[in-house]
Specification:
By secondary structure, the protein is of the alpha+beta class. 15% of the residues lie in helices and 23% in strands. It contains three helices and four strands, in the order αβββαβα. Strands 2-3-1-4 form a four-stranded antiparallel β-sheet, with helices on one face. The longest helix is centred in the middle third of the chain and has 9 residues, at 56-64. It is elongated, with a radius of gyration of 26 Å. Pfam families: DUF2129 (PF09902). Keywords: Cytoplasm.
Length: 116
């Protein structure tokens, strides 16, 4: 098998996390058909599933309708803007906070226990 197009191999598929709370962990295998099961907590009875962004709404509704699912929680991380360059680059971000107190540094001499 020979692949002619290297772009297909390196394309990143956007995904979104979904926490699925369950009544029983017996049916965790059924979640694999909707996405990638990354983590399963046996004590708290939840699974972390990653779904493709394109099919996220459809698959999350299907998962929510399953009889063993208590509730689902969607990840909001893709909705948050992660570009902080404008806020970090401002002069205001690097201004020292002046409380009106002066800090005086004193020379301290370190003595070893052997020389005391």
């Amino acid at each position: 098998m020979q692949v002619n197009n290297n772009q297909d191999l390196l394309s990143v598929v956007p995904r979104r996390g979904l926490v699925v709370w369950m009544y029983s962990l017996r049916q965790v295998r059924n979640l694999r058909r909707y996405g990638t099961v990354l983590y399963i907590s046996k004590r708290m009875k939840y699974a972390l599933v990653y779904l493709n962004e394109a099919d996220f709404d459809q698959n999350s509704e299907k998962i929510e309708r399953l009889h063993f699912v208590r509730k689902i929680e969607k990840s909001y991380r893709p909705d948050i803007e992660m570009n902080f360059a404008e806020k970090i680059g401002t002069k205001r971000a690097f201004q020292p906070n002046d409380d009106g107190f002066e800090v005086e540094e004193k020379n301290t001499r370190i003595r070893l226990a052997e020389n005391v």
